[in-house]
Amino acid sequence: MEIHRLEKIWLAVSLVLIVGLIASIVYGVAGAGVGTVGDTGQTVDPSSLDGTAFADPGGHWAGEDHYVVHVVARQFLFQPGTQEPITVPANTTVTFYVTSPDVVHGFDVVGTQLNAMVIPGQVTKFTTEFDEPKTYGIVCHEYCGAGHQSMAGQLVVVPADELPRNATSANATSTNATATNGTGNTSAAVAAPEVVA
Length: 197
Ligand SMILES: [Cu+2]
Hints:
Elements: H1 5-31, E1 58-63, E2 66-74, E3 77-79, E4 86-89, E5 93-99, E6 105-109, E7 115-118, E8 124-129, E9 134-139, E10 152-158, E11 190-191
Parallel strand pairs: 2-5, 4-10
Antiparallel strand pairs: 1-2, 2-3, 5-8, 6-7, 6-9, 8-11, 9-10
Bound molecules: copper (II) ion.
Copper (II) ion is lined by residues 76, 105, 140, 142, 144, 148, 151.
């Protein structure tokens, strides 16, 4: 069978496009450090967060250079985040644990690569580090109901010495959590959930 020269060229171009698209997807998933919320990590009972670190969400020091924040995303606010900002230290490893007691939400720190899905019953964990004091917006990017468009908050990065170290926390049980998936800077990956309590 005779294939015209132009047809061969188009076949080659199509092949390059297909391979290129697949390569870009593979890079986006593997190279850029994107992960999925797996089902092998920590789970919580979404109908009752009592007795977990999410009963009294917020941030606390978990080590000399490690800060941990628990956030509850619910219809239609972030706790903390909406009524009071989430405050984290600059130049410090910060690990977030986020869960939802109701429906699927998103946790997107605007202007960074922090973008996580929050699933009821699952704990989404991600680790990052902020280079300098700055205020970021947080938005929910998964449609979660009638008030979705107003579901937003603030993340304030302050110099590390402005966050008291001796603050006692009700989340003491989670201070053993270690950051195992830090990727540095704000290019944090969403890692599989991990046991925190
Ligand atoms: Cu939402």
